[in-house]
């Protein structure tokens, strides 16, 4: 399928170039060449696009192409100029960080991953990439030491938060389960540093930090950040995140009614709040009443379709709902989608396979 798509894309790109499509046509041709695995052609078209229009966007694309074809040194040189002119170019920052890590310029990689996270805290790729980079440097147990070594001096505020998040994740990976308060000084210090530094950043960063602490079962500390963020002017997505967290805490208190109210507010503020939808559907499935089943349908309809189709936990809960609603064909499609998204690996994939087996037995 990918090869056929590459052939089609290349034909369209060549036609656009023949019709004097300019830099846009060459940019499209560069992407088509990448799809086809033609590295030289990809770089050639990306450079031609820059020659016709040396905009920041085209030069950022050139840097991305150079990185994709395995030329991190050249990519870093291009992307450093892009970032100097546009420090908020998220893709350029992320690609520059990756290129820097590949050429073992770890100081530059840390800075650029951190800046990318600061531009868009809702995208976890910068933190995950930092995590893997430190793991590669230190092979897990030495990763904490490598991270601490990188913090010598006074890093910029946005770097502090990114490194704090990375440290929290490293502690959990090494400990398997994040230590409870008072168990280890290092774990407590990592949490307190995250709170202290996140409070100096915007509400989006604070809420991402709060969600991370929820995932680490450090709920009291998460509430500190939530309470602070609640006093700040929030955009729709941030209000959705805050309502989701409030719903989570209500659910932990076994107050399903209040939890569902908060989850509904989360979806109303941000239709991409798939975690709120997944939790709401789970609670309603536990209820199981006709009214709850009707509410599940309304909850699912409130979710952004593209987000709904990419959220594994929500897809699983939706499959259970469809099974109970006597729609096994639709349920099977959701479960098969989970296997595609997970590549058949992990706990959710195992649960999906078990549910498919149950559907097959019920049909038999």
Structure description:
- The protein is mainly α.
- Among the domains are: 117-221; 234-308, Serine Threonine Protein Phosphatase 5, Tetratricopeptide repeat (Alpha Horseshoe); 310-364, no CATH class.
- 78% of the residues lie in helices and 0% in strands.
- The chain has helices at residues 2-18, 22-36, 39-52, 56-68, 72-85, 90-102, 106-119, 125-138, 143-150, 157-175, 185-198, 203-215, 219-229, 236-252, 256-269, 274-287, 290-301, 305-308, 312-324, 328-342, 347-363.
SSE string, helix = H, strand = E? HHHHHHHHHHHHHHHHHHHHH
Radius of gyration: 23 Å
**Approximate strand percentage:** under 5%
Mean pLDDT: 88
Spans of at least 5 consecutive residues with low confidence = none
Number of helical runs? 21
Count all strands and give the number: 0
Q: Give me the secondary-structure category.
A: mainly alpha
The geometry reads as globular
């Amino acid at each position: 399928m990918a090869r056929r798509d590459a052939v089609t894309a290349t034909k369209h790109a060549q036609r656009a170039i023949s019709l004097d499509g300019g830099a846009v046509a060459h940019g499209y041709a560069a992407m088509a060449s990448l799809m086809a695995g033609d590295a030289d052609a990809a770089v050639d078209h990306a450079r031609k696009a820059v020659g016709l229009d040396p905009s920041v966007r085209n030069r950022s694309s050139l840097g991305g192409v150079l990185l994709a074809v395995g030329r991190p040194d050249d990519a870093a040189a291009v992307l450093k100029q892009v970032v100097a002119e546009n420090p908020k170019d998220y893709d350029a920052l992320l690609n520059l960080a990756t290129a820097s890590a590949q050429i073992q310029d770890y100081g530059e990689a840390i800075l650029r991953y951190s800046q990318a996270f600061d531009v868009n805290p809702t995208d976890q790729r910068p933190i995950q990439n930092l995590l893997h980079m430190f793991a590669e440097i230190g092979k897990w147990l030495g990763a904490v030491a490598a991270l601490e070594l990188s913090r010598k001096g006074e890093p910029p505020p946005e770097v502090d938060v990114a490194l704090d998040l990375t440290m929290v994740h490293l502690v959990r990976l090494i400990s398997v389960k994040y230590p409870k308060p008072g168990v280890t000084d290092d774990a407590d210090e990592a949490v307190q540093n995250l709170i202290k530094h996140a409070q100096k950043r915007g509400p989006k960063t604070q809420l991402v930090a709060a969600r991370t602490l929820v995932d680490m079962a450090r709920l009291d500390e998460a509430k500190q950040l939530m309470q602070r963020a609640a006093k700040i002017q929030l955009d729709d997505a941030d209000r959705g995140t805050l309502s989701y967290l409030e719903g989570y805490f209500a659910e932990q208190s076994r107050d399903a009614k209040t939890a569902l109210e908060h989850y509904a507010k989360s979806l109303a503020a941000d239709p991409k709040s798939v975690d709120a939808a997944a939790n709401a559907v789970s609670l309603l499935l536990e209820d199981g009443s006709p009214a709850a089943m009707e509410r599940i349908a309304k909850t699912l309809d409130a979710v952004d379709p593209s987000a709904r189709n990419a959220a594994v936990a929500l897809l699983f809960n939706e499959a259970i709902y469809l099974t109970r609603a006597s729609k096994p064909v639709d349920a099977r499609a959701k479960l098969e989608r989970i296997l595609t998204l997970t590549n058949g690996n992990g706990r959710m994939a195992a649960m999906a396979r078990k549910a498919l087996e149950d559907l097959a037995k019920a049909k038999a």
